[in-house]
Amino acid sequence: MPDSGPPPASPPLVSVVIPAWNAAAFLEDALASVAAQDYQPIEAIVVDDGSVDGTSEVARSFRPAVTLIEQPHAGIGAARNAGIAAARAEYLAFLDADDLWTPSSLSLRLSALQERSADIVYGQVIEFRGGVDSPPATGLLPGAALLRASAFRRVGPFRTDLRVGEFIDWWARAREAGLRIESLDRPALRRRIHDSNIGIRERASRTDYVQVARAALERRRRREEPGA
User: How far apart are CA 113 and CA 91, in angstroms?
Assistant: First the structure.
């Protein structure tokens, strides 16, 4: 009997971390968009960041496909870090609890990540409110990014002292670390616009963006110092 060779390699596991704070109204749709992916296997991790509205109950309704982590309210950076600490895959993805992935979101990004030997791949973002969609556009949002877990460890965890801007800070550090970043001209994320978006809910914390900018400038100053 002729040798048929080794069996084909199994598709790699992808871990998706979903931070959720009082997101019961939207989380079911987000998780359904993960379940509807044309790629498997996926490890979905929901981090309930101290919700009081039934968010955990929604996540539990998707068990055993979804792992639920519950913690006291500590902010989105801490929630993302908790999910990453529990993730088992060599590839990491993120999805905010009020957003949706397009059906081919993971397969498109993973193919590009592997083919281009990149560390991070971003897809395009479609913003929607009600029945109205924006044209697809490049958006450096966590839900549009897929990255290697090893690349995340090179950069380090998300800051936990920021109410907003934690991903902008991380992305700046990723650029400074020399990560190979690619983008696709295909939609990967549907971003829901509503009156409780974190940017609206955390208006009082927008000074955090100033902290992010100052931290980036300070790191640049240190790199440019003689002998650095």
Answer: 10
